[in-house]
Write a sequence for this structure.
């Protein structure tokens, strides 16, 4: 037996409740910055987790010449760091949920200690993993095509050096477009899965309906995070001394905009629970939103 949403459809009068003042974005950004200052552990952990993938760059020798990337055989240090970085990224797949819950708690004067932040990230793992798989399904043909192309054009030399073509501007543009499209789609989907419903299908329906209903007044919330993510995705062609500050700035900017977006979402669709959808029972079902 499923537990359905009781009462009227919370989105029935949505258009009347949409804030239309574009200046609200500035106010939300200032509030988000104040939360980051009051809760320094939040930006610190976000920065460490955002920089984790770069750890695998240490101990790896890579050169670019004549449009070809030459990667020396991985040493023990690089293999260990890659394993550790990959484990952190996978284990903390639910961290984006923890960030948004942190902002929700800050609205009511609550905080989140380090141990709880890690535990909450593990609790969010399932729903964010399912969301990632659902969105990645649309990329399978593209990923297969790119993988086959690189496999055909990759050479392995006698000393173990791997030679691959450097990404062309067309590939970089394609990566940027795909990143922007998927990040735009998830603008309100991720808050929905944290604040309103733990089910991915409900969060997609709620997030996409809210995006359609609020555009273009929400353009800053929608467009700024993808630009930060694009900058993050392009770090691989840069040296560590350039990529570290680039990723750090884009990670912190993304965090502040996440807080601003959370503030906007909670004004339009307030959550009735202290910790959003974190502790909802598995049988919970937002039927009215799904039929909308």
């Amino acid at each position: 037996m499923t537990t359905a949403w009781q009462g009227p459809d919370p989105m029935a009068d949505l258009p009347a409740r949409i804030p239309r003042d574009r200046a609200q974005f500035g106010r939300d950004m200032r509030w988000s910055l104040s939360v980051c200052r009051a809760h320094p552990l939040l930006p610190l952990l976000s920065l460490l987790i955002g920089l984790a993938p770069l750890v695998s760059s240490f101990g790896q020798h890579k050169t670019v010449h004549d449009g070809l990337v030459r990667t020396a055989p991985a040493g023990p240090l690089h293999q260990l760091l890659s394993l550790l970085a990959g484990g952190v990224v996978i284990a903390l797949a639910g961290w984006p949920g923890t960030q948004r819950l942190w902002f929700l708690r800050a609205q009511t004067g609550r905080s989140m200690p380090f141990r709880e932040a890690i535990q909450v990230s593990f609790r969010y793992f399932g729903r964010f993993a399912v969301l990632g798989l659902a969105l990645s399904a649309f990329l399978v043909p593209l990923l297969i095509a790119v993988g086959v192309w690189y496999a055909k054009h990759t050479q392995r030399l006698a000393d173990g050096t791997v030679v691959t073509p450097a990404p062309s501007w067309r590939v970089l543009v394609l990566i940027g477009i795909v990143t922007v499209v998927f990040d735009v789609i998830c603008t309100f989907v991720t808050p929905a899965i944290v604040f309103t419903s733990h089910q991915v299908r409900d969060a997609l329906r709620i997030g996409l309906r809210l995006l359609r209903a609020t555009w273009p007044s929400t353009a800053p919330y929608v467009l700024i995070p993808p630009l930060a993510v694009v900058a993050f995705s392009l770090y691989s062609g840069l040296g560590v001394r350039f990529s570290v500050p680039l990723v750090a700035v884009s990670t912190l900017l993304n965090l502040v905009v996440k807080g601003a977006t959370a503030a906007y979402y909670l004004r339009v669709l307030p959550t009735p629970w202290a910790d959003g959808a974190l502790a909802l029972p598995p049988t919970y079902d937002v039927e009215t939103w799904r039929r909308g």
